[in-house]
Model the fold of this input.
Amino acid sequence: MADPGLMRLFVAQHERPPGAAALDFAALSPYHRCLLITDGTVTSLLEAYALEAVRTRCLDRAAGRLTPVQQRWLRVDAGAATLARRVVIEGVRSNAAYLSASSVLIPDRLPPDFVEALAHEHASIGSALIGAAVEHRRELLWFDRPAGTVASRTYRVFIQGRPALLITEEFLR
Done:
């Protein structure tokens, strides 16, 4: 059983999407528990664990439509301009896929330097936030276990006090 103190970090665990598979937090390896709760850059954690540099490979980037869940957590109307992005983070040497992620961004809430940095195919959100010196905070929403993954988490990123990104990361190894 997971420590109730750690579970308070996930502000919407009780609201995870219908059909999301439950995950026993305590049964995960220490590495995977750290990945789930970090509020920092995941790529740095992956590199430290794997002892190799990682790269972000953008699979898809397009204007998107929001689901009702995304609208709620981003606090926007259905017609808001959005950018949807899917990536995989893999080892530079091994080519091992460590993580896949999907994100929804609200461009009007993002600094132009950040949006420009993300236009590069291999840019990660974390590196773009750091590179553009964007003050932000992350709020963990929920975790679960989609088929074919070790674990998954969903969180949102606040910039200037407003939710600007909604990200789901699936840990593959």
Q: What stands out?
A: The longest helix spans residues 42-50. The chain has a mean pLDDT of 90. DSSP finds six helices and six strands in the chain.
